[in-house]
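Weekly puzzle thread! Below is a chain. First person to post its structure in token form gets bragging rights.
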Amino acid sequence: MPDFVFSVENNPFMARIRDCIEPLNYHAAKNFSFDLTRRTEPHSDLIPPPTFSDQVLPFNYSYRQNPAVVEIVDKSGNTIARNKNKTFRNKILSIPYNGARAPAEPPTDLQPIGLCADEVQALFGKIQALFDERPIWTRRALGNRVGKLGSSEEMKFVYPYLGYEFTSGPWQNTLVRYGIDPRDDRQYRIYQTMTFQFADAEMKPNNSDAHPRARESTVNRFATDNRPHDSMATSHVFDGASVDITTGKSFQVCDISDRTLQKLLATEVLRKKCHTKVDGWYHNGTWAKARVILKHKICALLTPGTGLMQLDFDQIAILPEIFLQQKDTGPYLEKTDASPLARSLTQRARAIASAPENLGGIDAP
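Winning reply:
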């Protein structure tokens, strides 16, 4: 970088350069000559003095190569520059909900696991054994099962060796074992996830003393090195009696032990073709009912003084598995003495099930 820059737009010497040299014409170039006349006038070929500088001498920039950058020879025999202090990070392979076939193996550019530290190899073996037990996991469930065996950074380093993820859809926020595509077989419906966002009004209605966990923002346990305590080892499980959303707000069907939801999601009335955008293998009515019941129970558990009536949820559960249009829920409500809460939850389920993205691809009864 020069210390001083000035315009040469009106400089006579640069004007001759533009006229004679830049056209790349031989005859024009022959006419170029240096003006050796001694004179001082505006636009003369003199570097201006540093009248606007606060330093007497030009600044010494002392440019030099980063000492952490070294030259190495790659596999092709080419010499390239490499920063030896750069942290090596693995990135999980992600595909959209409607993407092509699921990857069968990890990316080839990953560092061989055999060259990793002993702690990383031990963690790899532990998580690999968990994937033999179950092909699809949420990160929260994996963290609870692994415990304090590995740090968060080590776990994030190991994940790309074992599975990939969906950016959205029924299996969002999960890690799927390579070679498994849950969109191909109904048996993988139990690994679908329901993820929620909670507004303050939902967490503490008419009560300013809501549970502290309800006021906390979602905390990603894998953003720190804090491993879960024993009391948090089942935070990924929803049993209908307690809940913790500080470590995540996604729940897999197989991790729901609440009686009402288990019975609802154990239905054999399933789609013939996977709805890859929202509902997965469940029909829009089934998935909408499960979502509104689960969310209401979570809000109730995190809000002191809120009671749960099983009858309300039983009335929601008898709604149809398939919603073809909004009016489908009407006859079912008229046959029962539905409570105000049941009617409110029905309206929510109907809104979810009848959304345009959920009405597509329905298998009509």
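Puzzle host: Confirmed. Bonus trivia for everyone else. Residues 205-231 have pLDDT under 50 and may be disordered.
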